[in-house]
Design a protein that fits this description.
heterodimer, A: 253 residues, alpha/beta, Rossmann fold, 7-stranded parallel beta sheet, B: 275 residues
Chain lengths: 253, 275
């Protein structure tokens, strides 16, 4: 097992990519701290892990609040005695162009998608350094490297995460490795009411002709969290079915 | 059941370094491995190590810049093992006497570097893809380099070959995605291989000291081990990376994350972060 004896903290693990990662890490031997603002969802992830023979606890966390982030990290330490792996994964955002979104919406998106990762690092990195190091995995987005209309704040936040990954990697080397995953179109609960037609239209743009599943990202998160990637830090891995490899041109035939 | 049981992998430049380490890792995980290399003695030694792991290895002597040789590698692989699933285009040359700017670089050096480092990837893919297709899909992994992204003085042919590999990777990913063939590249930083040792030998002082000094330019404070690159190749070739294609992954101890004026390693082992 790749994470035997490790303790992993995963934000946004009540659903989607975070939930898939929590279950995969648990199956690979890690004890899991499930952090989310969604209590029923978080507790559901925990009971799934326990039913599977693993160990996990839920910490209700509002990642917009410094005291919640601190208490989340402290809970991991007091409950499991150490912290080896962090997957900073949670995201909540408001859509809109720069002219459409309000200052509150901007602040909320930047707070959850960008500032939260800084707060986690601020509290967790010193603890991880003193306990001998570990790995920090961040969920970014292909929004960090491509522009899509109507996501002004979200793109700024995800671009910020990509840059912060490099900065954290430089500051924490060689004791903590820090890497970021840039998922493309991954179908999670956040897609909500998106119609099947729209889902198919997006899948058609991926050269693999399908949208991603949370497990696709969880597999990469496990790779980055484990010793399999021991010479990687400050790196990004695009997991997008080839979405950003191809120029989208109208069919000419 | 191991991840690559019943799979057949071709590794170019598989006698030494990253190629050898990856060949052994594939073998350890169940694959039969075809080594394409010009070095018979070292290639055979690698094959012996593969066989000792309980997989089957095969050396096909080949100058992979030559079309007929590439065709022969694939044909021999199919003749011997019946199939090809994974191609690891890995061969690369950057000889210690190849450091020139474009004005001074002999044309033969340019041609040789481009032919071995880039054209061989085209040729091996060209002949392997029809066989991979017969298996309903597979994976091609290409060894590019951080020097395809950022460079240093005096390596125009090498840098161009590595940048070309990144573009070729993207292109083949687009062209063969519909046939379930994923194509990905890795960009290693300084890996402690025979090639890097030869480069270190041209520097003043002890090669070990040079290697250590080069290691310190990576945030992780050391050069990489070939097995650390092999682990990334196996991950990308596995089903766990099934939603990845067309992309590259840096395996560089953080080198590409660091700006030019930054010095190497950040935090000290005692837990303090450098100010």
């Amino acid at each position: 097992m790749l994470l035997e004896g490790k303790v992993a903290l995963i934000t946004g693990s009540a659903s989607g990519i975070g939930r898939a990662t929590a279950k995969l890490f648990a199956a690979q031997g890690a004890k899991i701290v499930v952090a989310d603002i969604n209590k029923p969802g978080g507790e559901n992830t925990v009971s799934d892990i326990i039913d599977g023979g693993g160990e996990a606890l839920f910490v209700e966390t509002d990642l917009a609040k410094m005291e919640d982030v601190k208490s989340m990290v402290d809970t991991a330490m007091t409950s499991f005695g150490r912290l080896d792996v962090i997957h900073s994964n949670a995201a909540a955002y408001d859509m809109g162009t720069a002219t459409e979104i309000t200052e509150d919406q901007w602040d909320r998106t930047i707070s959850t998608c960008l500032k939260a990762t800084w707060m986690i690092a601020h509290h967790a990195v010193p603890l991880m350094l003193t306990s001998g190091g570990g790995t920090f995995v961040i969920t970014g987005s292909d929004h960090a490297i491509r522009g899509y209309p109507g996501y002004a704040a979200y793109q700024a936040a995800k671009g910020g995460l990509l840059a912060m990954t490099r900065s954290l990697a430089a500051d924490c080397a060689p004791t903590i490795r820090v890497n970021i995953i840039l998922p493309g179109a991954v179908e999670t609960e956040i897609w909500g009411e998106t119609t099947q037609e729209e889902r198919d239209r997006i899948a058609e743009m991926c050269i693999l002709k399908r949208n991603g599943r949370p497990e696709d990202i969880a597999n990469v998160a496990l790779f980055l969290a484990s010793d399999m990637s021991s010479y990687m830090t400050g790196a990004h891995i695009v997991v997008d079915g080839g979405l950003t490899s191809v120029v989208q041109l109208p069919e000419t035939e | 059941m191991r991840e690559f049981d019943s799979k057949v992998v071709i590794v170019t430049g598989g006698a030494y370094g990253i190629g050898k380490s990856t060949a052994l890792e594939f073998a350890r995980n169940g694959a039969n491995v075809v080594i394409a290399d010009i070095n018979e003695k070292v290639g055979n030694a690698t094959v012996s190590e593969i066989n000792e792991l309980g997989s089957r290895g095969l050396l096909v002597l080949a100058d992979v810049s030559n079309s007929a040789d590439c065709n022969n590698v694939v044909a021999t692989a199919v003749e011997t093992f019946g199939r090809v699933d994974i191609l690891f285009n890995n061969v690369g040359i950057q000889s210690p006497d190849s450091y020139f700017n474009v004005e001074d670089a002999p044309e033969e050096l340019w041609d040789r570097t481009i032919n071995v480092n880039l054209k061989s990837y085209f040729l091996m893919s060209k002949y392997s893809i029809p066989e991979i297709r017969k298996q309903g899909g597979g994976v091609i992994i290409n060894t590019a380099s951080v020097q395809g992204l950022q460079s240093m003085k005096g390596v125009p042919a090498y840098a161009a070959s590595k940048g070309g590999i990144l573009s070729l990777t993207r292109q083949m990913a687009i062209d063969y995605a519909s046939e379930n063939i994923r194509v990905l590249a890795i960009c290693p930083g300084t890996i402690d291989t025979q090639m890097v040792r030869a480069q270190a030998a041209r520097e003043p002082g002890e090669p070990d000291d040079t290697i250590e000094k080069w290691g310190m330019t990576h945030p992780l404070g050391r050069t990489g081990d070939a097995r650390e690159v092999a682990n990334v190749v196996l991950f990308l070739a596995s089903e766990k990376a099934s939603f990845m294609t067309g992309e590259y992954v840096n395996v560089d101890g953080g080198m590409m994350a660091l700006g030019a004026w930054a010095s190497g390693s950040g935090a000290s082992a005692d837990g303090s972060i450098r100010n």
